[in-house]
Specification:
This protein has a single domain (about 5-300), classed as TIM Barrel (Alpha-Beta Barrel). The protein contains 12 helices and 10 strands. The chain has helices spanning about 5-15, 25-40, 50-55, 60-70, 85-95, 110-125, 155-165, 190-200, 215-225, 235-245, 255-270, 280-300, and strands spanning about 20-25, 45-50, 75-85, 100-105, 130-135, 140, 145, 170, 205-210, 250-255. It has an 8-stranded parallel barrel with strand order 1-2-3-4-5-8-9-10, surrounded by 10 helices. It has a two-stranded antiparallel ribbon with strand order 6-7. β8, α8 and β9 form a beta-alpha-beta unit. The chain is globular and about 60 Å long. It starts with 5 loop residues before the first helix and ends in a 6-residue tail after the last helix. Bound molecules: glyceraldehyde-3-phosphate (G3H), 1,3-dihydroxyacetonephosphate, zinc ion (ZN) and sodium ion. Glyceraldehyde-3-phosphate (G3H) binds near residues 23, 178 and 254.
């Protein structure tokens, strides 16, 4: 059933695992993720970015999710707005049936981030909707803001932010970043900082964005069949598992799904040049999403069998 993620996170916190939050943009991606979650008997979060709302339309996405739950309601599912840029967009999603929203004020000065987050919390909570906020900046492109350097989350500020806003979960910056190019040299996360934040916020769910691992076999497949994805590097899976045992209850994955879909379609079309029925390549692409998500659920999140 469609649920507020509160209980998913309480169980994940206590059990030292995480719930995967996977970005959705179309029917095949939703089906692939839902089939994986159902097979793994895992709770799951379907997250919708403002770009996804623009591409597919909020109503289309919500009705696809409803359809998925009509077909199989065996695992708890939350629908979440990813990187909500404004109060108004959060409000539209809450009114449209989302069970969780992120208000991303991470680019704002501290006090303005607090004020904006508080405004969303005041609208969301009476309506039973969860609110994720963000403090600190991820390197790379964070929505419209290009930040060249990480501004890691300060543990004392995190406590003040949570107390003053009443937000339900907090996305933190400890060295991850969005997209396929996360590290120039060796992958490194600031686990001391994560531990400090987690110690100061006991029983509080933290969120890790930019958590794709960028599997090199998929990069290689893309490149083998005409792609040009050079120098891509992600977060090693063992680091994500470690974070999941340290108060991180939600781990966001988009890039790895994109890579799986694109590698699969490139390969299919290269090997079947005569084919032009979109179903011929979207079907294996949907299967590739399912395989990727099932792998994440089982080997990265640790949420198999927790539904
Ligand atoms: O954090 C961003 C997500 O990967 C969504 O990306 O805004 O291109 O849909 P998008
Ligand atoms: P990746 O780009 O690492 O998949 O991160 C996705 C994300 O954080 C969505 O909010
Ligand atoms: Zn993100
Ligand atoms: Na956890």
């Amino acid at each position: 059933p469609l649920t507020n993620p509160k209980e998913m996170f309480a169980a994940a916190y206590a059990g030292g695992y995480a719930v995967g939050a996977f970005n959705v943009n179309n029917m095949e991606i939703i089906q692939g993720i839902m089939n994986a979650a159902s097979e793994e008997k895992s709770p799951v979060i379907l997250q919708v970015s403002s770009g996804a709302r623009k591409y597919a339309g909020q109503d289309y996405i919500m009705k696809l999710v409803d359809a998925a739950l009509d077909v199989d309601a065996s695992v708890p599912v939350a629908v979440h707005l990813d990187h909500g840029p404004s109060f108004e967009m959060c409000r539209d999603c809450i009114d449209g049936g989302f069970t969780s929203v992120m208000i991303d004020g991470s680019h704002l000065p501290f006090e303005e981030n607090i004020a904006l987050t508080k405004q969303v919390v005041e609208y969301a909570h009476p309506r039973g909707v969860w609110v994720e906020a963000e403090l600190g900046k991820l390197a790379g492109i964070e929505e419209h803001v290009q930040s060249d350097e990480h501004v890691y989350t300060d543990p004392a500020e995190a406590v003040e932010f949570v107390e003053r806003t009443g937000c339900d979960s907090l996305a933190i910056a400890i060295g991850t970043s969005h997209g396929a190019y996360k590290f120039k040299g060796e992958a490194k996360l600031d686990f001391d900082r994560l531990e400090a934040i987690s110690k100061k916020l006991p029983d509080y769910p933290l969120v890790l964005h930019g958590a794709s691992s960028v599997p090199q076999e998929f990069v290689a497949l893309c490149n083998k069949y005409g792609g040009n994805v050079g120098g891509a590097k992600g977060v090693p899976e063992d680091m994500l598992r470690k974070a999941a045992g340290m108060g991180v209850c939600k781990i966001n994955v988009d890039t790895d799904i994109r890579l799986a879909v694109t590698a699969c379609i490139r390969q299919y079309l290269a090997e079947h040049p005569e084919e032009f029925d979109p179903r011929s390549y979207l079907k294996p692409a949907r299967e590739a999403v399912k395989k990727m998500v099932a792998h994440k659920i089982r080997n990265v999140m640790g949420s198999s069998g927790k539904a």
